[in-house]
Amino acid sequence: MRTQVAIIGAGPSGLLLGQLLHKHGIDNVIVERHTGEHVLSRIRAGVIEQVTMDLLDEAGVGARMHQDGLIHEGVQICVDGVRHRISFKDLTGKAVMVYGQTEITKDLMDGRAAVGAPTIYAAYDVALHDIFGTHPRVTYRADGKNHEIECDFIAGCDGFHGISRKSVPPRAITAHERVYPIGWLGLLSETPPVSEELIYVRHELGFALCSMRSHTRSRYYIQCSLAEDIESWPDERFWEELKPRLDEEARERLVTGPSIEKSIAPLRSFVAEPMRFGRLFLAGDAAHIVPPTGAKGLNLAASDVQYLWRALLEHYKDKSDAGIDHYSDRALARVWKAERFSWWMTMTLHKISENPFDVKIQLAELDYLFRSKAAATVFAENYVGLPY
Ligand SMILES: Cc1cc2nc3c(=O)[nH]c(=O)nc-3n(C[C@H](O)[C@H](O)[C@H](O)COP(=O)(O)OP(=O)(O)OC[C@H]3O[C@@H](n4cnc5c(N)ncnc54)[C@H](O)[C@@H]3O)c2cc1C
Q1: Distance between CA 112 and CA 19 in Å, rounded?
Q2: How confident is the model at residue 41 (pLDDT cuts 50, 70, 90)?
Q3: Most CB within 10 Å of its CB: which of 221, 237, 371, 381?
Q4: Whole-number pLDDT of residue 388
Q5: Is the pLDDT at 42 greater than 90, yes or no?
Q6: Residue 185 confidence (pLDDT)
């Protein structure tokens, strides 16, 4: 098989890149390790920035998002039982949207199927070849046979555990990492959200987040130890751990119910530099991970795709490699700002250190955030999405 761009991974970054390239006449094939059903079963991001909304529109798959997504003009932060609101609208004139990653993935998969662009699901032993040469190739096994795709470029959109980043010689790549000693235990339930806006909770028992996917579906998280086993968390135990972290009003309004999904996610900050290696580009979680506190992972994946699809368009249509040559620097400049914000939110809202000095610093950071319009504006600008 021959294509212009071979894309590894059918997560949001791979599917979005594929859709944008296809729309502009650039041939591409997506190779995905799992089945489509498995990809759609993963419950992850819920908050999207304007950049992501704009790209989904550009890709022609934004209709359902505009119909079902919930616009949020602010966010609430509860510190030891007292809630504070930060208005994105007043401070930046912008807003974010709550629309689940699962729905975005479904919209992108449907869009791809509608235009007949090829995706190979359940592709095993995916391997990348000749990324620094002139004839890059991707090989894989599917249906019990070996296959090969010849291409001009490879886009590594295969997430943190994917093969693309690992295909780069160690001397060519630098990894920066911080692993936090905590995780998020998440529960999805068919219950109305406790509030119209997200509530981030800083509490001496540990962090919590009251989030949602719709007016009838809620997503809650509590901070947990990395040693936790999901089997030892029946729903009742989750609700009992969540309640004391909330303020009184939220506790009274909380509607509990059976979980429809429950999982534990570790918290990690990670950046691989650079993001281009010859004819291989990394995008999304393949290149960087943020702890989910700042709701930035999916949005960063979208902003990488924004730089990458335009660079590839310039290459094919304008015969210019300027975008390709600058892809890594442009993407990383944005990545590091999102890393900073996600790290700051994580360190400020979680129970990470028992040292009273660290606790006092956390409280001082939050007090400043609530009292200073300048600090609140910086927070809001970061949350709704930094400009390009
Ligand atoms: C609990 C949680 C909450 C989050 N909340 C938010 C939020 O509110 N906002 C936000 O912006 N982000 C959030 N994120 C982050 C967001 O989910 C990720 O950043 C996003 O999924 C990245 O998309 P991606 O396409 O780059 O990678 P992925 O979604 O990981 O997709 C990669 C794809 O590549 C495939 N793959 C892997 N290896 C191979 C291989 N060898 N060969 C072929 N295919 C392969 C995988 O199966 C997968 O389908 C959250 C994450 C978690 C865990």
Answers
A1: 6
A2: confident
A3: 221
A4: 59
A5: no
A6: 97
- Residue whose CB lies within 8 A of the most ligand 1 atoms, among 49, 101, 267, 299, for a mutation test: 101
pLDDT of residue 327: 98
DSSP letter for each residue of 141-190: EETTEEEEEE-SEEEE---TT-STGGGS-GGG-EEEEEEEEEEEEEEEES
Distance CA 47, CA 73 (A): 12
Pocket lining for ligand 1, CB < 6 angstroms: 8-14, 31-34, 39, 44-47, 101, 123, 126, 157-159, 161-163, 184, 186, 265, 284-285, 292, 295-299, 301
CA 366 to chain centroid, in Å, comes to 25
Active site residue 296: yes
In the DSSP assignment, the letter for residue 50 is H
Secondary structure element (H or E) that encloses residue 98, with its range: strand 96-98
Average pLDDT of the residues of the chain: 96
The Å distance, Cα 369 to ligand 1 centre, comes to 30
Please list the residues that pair with 263 across neighbouring strands. Answer: 186
Average pLDDT over residues 301-312: 97
